[in-house]
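hey m, so remember when u said the tokens were messed up on ur end? i reran from scratch. heres the input so u can diff it against urs
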Amino acid sequence: IKDDVEGIKEELLTEVFKLGRGKYANPMKMFSEHGFGMKAAMLTLGDIFKFKTKYDTEELGSELVENNISENYSDQTPLLKFERFSDNEWKGTEIVMNNLNTALTPYDARSVKILATKLGSTYARFIDSGVLEIRLVMNNLDSDKEVYNSIVHSHHRIYAHGTKRDKNNAPVREPDLPAVTFKGRDGTRWEVVFESGYKPSDEDAVKMGLPEWPEGSPFSPIGKNIGFDVVKNGRTILRNVMSENFKFSGRGNYIQGEIHI
């Protein structure tokens, strides 16, 4: 897994690999609540074979050459040995996994297609603007034949008007709704942009002439898709926020929106 963005500062490397937060209580209760994220993803996928990063304003990069990273040390800072390297051409971060847990990896073309839908919704803004291209490729290890090879397309939510209907009794499709901005008061410096509306039901989607929701879509009107998405710097970082406020309402299943922070 490799990116070519700014990399990670040397001073933050131990924090990056700190598993869990022990007795630390996150007052926001929403972001980095457990302190796992990337670390847990790496641990569950397999063994960390290589971790190499270089922050864009630092002359030297860092490569993890020895570690005892384990869930047994979930509330401690693990023992880490980094070696510094010099490479003016290196940019970003690279993670190499070994001994992959195949139970957690896509095992057929259908699974990869579902993954493509989710990635297309998470990174839709970057894909649409042309700054990001994601291609998923899958080979069958037994036959060594390629079973999936496709570029990820952006996947968007669809807003339907809550009351207006056309001559076919279908909800009027709405463009992206005007967003409302909330700002902190009394010297607090925060700002969020909130957007909400209704998603069409399966029956209404047919009347509106919409294609079927792709499998795995986070925008389809089903119970687990209740709530709002949190978007930061154009990327969806959290889904289904405030879902508990709507799950007992029949129409709550069709409320959707985004919170931009």
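this time it looks ok to me. The radius of gyration is 22 Å. if urs says something different then somethings off w ur setup not the seq
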